[in-house]
Structures are given as C-alpha cells and as structure tokens.
Amino acid sequence: MPLHRKKIFRLAPPAPTTIYVRPGYNRVLAEEFEALKVKRAALVLDKIEAHSQGDLRENFGFKAAKEAIRAVDRKMTALDRFVARNTFIEVDPATWLTKPTDTLQLGHVVSLEKEDLATGRRHRFLFLVTTYGETAVDPESGLECLPHNSPLAGAILGLAAGASAQVRLPAGESRLTVRAIRNPTKTEIDRLLSVIKPPEIEDAEE
Fold this sequence. Notes:
This protein has helices at residues 5-9, 25-51, 60-85, 151-156, 186-192, and strands at residues 17-21, 86-90, 109-116, 122-130, 144-147, 164-169, 172-182. It is an alpha/beta fold. The strands form 2 sheets. Strands 5-4-3-7-6 form a 5-stranded mixed β-sheet. It has a two-stranded parallel sheet with strand order 1-2. 15% of the residues are buried. The two termini are 18 Å apart. It folds into 2 domains: 15-90, Helix Hairpins (Orthogonal Bundle); 93-192, Chitinase A, domain 3.
C-alpha cells in the first residue's frame, strides 16, 4: 500500500519523557478531557438538530457543527497522546525552600551568565527552575521562571556554581556559566507560580 504524503513528511512523535508538575496537574488533565467530552456531546446534539432542518448542501449550521466536532476530536486525541507518552511526577514547591544547593536542580534559583562566543557580549539572568509550563516573571526582582524541560534548563541542570557549558542556541554558540545557586523564598514562589492550567497542545490533523 503506498505511503500517504502526510505520513512521509510528518515528524516522528517525541520520545516519552518524565515531566515534573505541581500537585493537582493530573487532576487538571482529567478535568480538561472530561470538559472536551461534554463539549463534544453538545455539538453532536447541535449537528442532529441542524440535520433535521433539510438540505445539507446549504445547511451551514450542520457544516459548522461537523467541523467543530472534528476540532474537539483532534484536541481530545492530542491530549490523550500527551498523557500516554509521558510520565507525570507531582512535586510540592514547599520542598524547594530548603533543598541542598550543591548542584543546580529543579526548584533552585540560579544566577546565570550567557556569553555570546561570536561577539563576546555577556548577559546575566536570574531564573527559578520550575515545573512544566511555568513562564511568569517577577517585575520587582526580575526573577523569571525557567521550565525544567526547556532546552536552556537541560543545558545547565546538574552544574555546580562556577561551572560552565557551551551550547548552541538559536542566536549562535554561547557559553553558559552558573554564577550562583540558592533556594527561593516563599514570597518568590507565591509571586511566580500561576494557577495550574491544561497544556496547550497542537491539534493538527492526521
């Protein structure tokens, strides 16, 4: 049987990973899936009602309901795959306040220096290495969330203070140096950690 063009050029699915999340994330995933099921059931009723109104060739309500059902189906499939492909470990941020700081780990605040090897320019950043999906910034301190599964976090996790790593970033080759590691304060955690939300997953067609 000939291969479909979409299947030839489609990127391979990501490898299963361990994703650290805050307590309640698994419940949010389940609630999101149930909400999509409820939405789909309502759309099916809309489709049935539109179908009863006559000629389907010019029945825009029927077509709209049909497309909406397909969109919900894609989101449900994508969410189901996201859950099936990954392992979720819930981590309590309260443990970040006192954990050892020998090497950079999830929950630490890191002072990071980035040197652009092409230009020699250096920049300093202050990150809280946090759980999946966190992107907040504290405008008062400049402290910014860095999700543990991001490429940048992957390059520096496990390093000790003073250690460096050379990496290729979108802007080019850079040297990353961990200048300091400390625990966050409760105030910093309270300011930065947002309400847990379901993931934003692309619902691409098969």
